[in-house]
Amino acid sequence: MIVLAPAWSPTTSLLLLLLLLSPGLRGTPDCSFRHSPISSTFADTIRKLSDYLLQDYPVTVASNLQDDKLCGAFWRLVLAQRWMGRLKTVAGSQMQSLLEAVNTEIHFVTLCTFQPLPSCLRFVQTNISHLLQDTSQQLLALKPWITRWNFSGCLELQCQPDSSTLLSPRISGALGATVPPAPQAPLLLLLLLLLLPMALLLATVWCLCWRRRRQGTPYPGEQVPPACSSQDVLPLQLVAN
C-alpha cells in the first residue's frame, strides 16, 4: 500500500508563518498578580524617606497622562520607580538604603513589559515631597485591585488629547454658545442691493414719462397726452426684468 504525503509548497509555509505571527494567536503579555506585591507598611517606608530628603528637591512628573482609574495609577508608579533608580545613583549610602526601601515597594511594576515612553508625554517640575505623596496615594488606590485586575491593557502609557487641536463636542458646544452673533451689516448691504434695481427702475419710468409729456406738448386745440399710469409702468418692469 502506498501512502501519498500531502503536498508542501512555499505558499503553505508562508500561510503558516503568517498565522503564527498573527496578534490574535500570540496573545498579549500578561501583567497580573496572584499575590499582592503592595505591603501594608508602604506609607511608613515612604514617610521615612521624606524625613531625610530635601522637601524642595526638584523632580519631574507627567502632566498629561490619560485620566484612567487603574492604568493611570499604574503609569504614575512606573514613572516614580524610574525616579527612585535615578536618585539612588547620586545618593549617599544611608540615603540609598531608604531609596531602596521605597523602590522595593513599587518595584513590582517592572515585572510587566511596558512599551517605551510615548513622545507625547509632557513633564513639569515639582518637589520630591509631592512625588512621594502621589506615590503613596497611587499605592493606596491600587491595593484593593492589584490581585483582581489584569493590567495587560496598561502596558502602553497614554497621553491626553491635545486641547489646542482636539475639543470634545461638549466643549465645542459651550464655546459656540458664547460666540457673539454675527453683525447685521451684510444683511443691510444685501437689502440695499435688492432695493437699488427697483429705485433705478422707478427713476427710469419717471424719466420716460417726463420726456413723453415734454415731447408731446400739444398745440392749441390738441389733446394733452395722459400721464403715465400703472399700465405704462408694468411693461417697463417686464422689459427691465
UniProtKB/TrEMBL annotation:
It is found in: Cell membrane; Secreted. InterPro entries: 4_helix_cytokine-like_core (IPR009079), Flt3_lig (IPR004213). Residues 1-27 form the signal peptide. It comes from the Eukaryota. It is a single-pass type I membrane protein. GO terms for biological process: B cell differentiation; dendritic cell differentiation; positive regulation of cell population proliferation. This is Fms-related tyrosine kinase 3 ligand. The keyword Iron does not apply. Its main location: membrane.
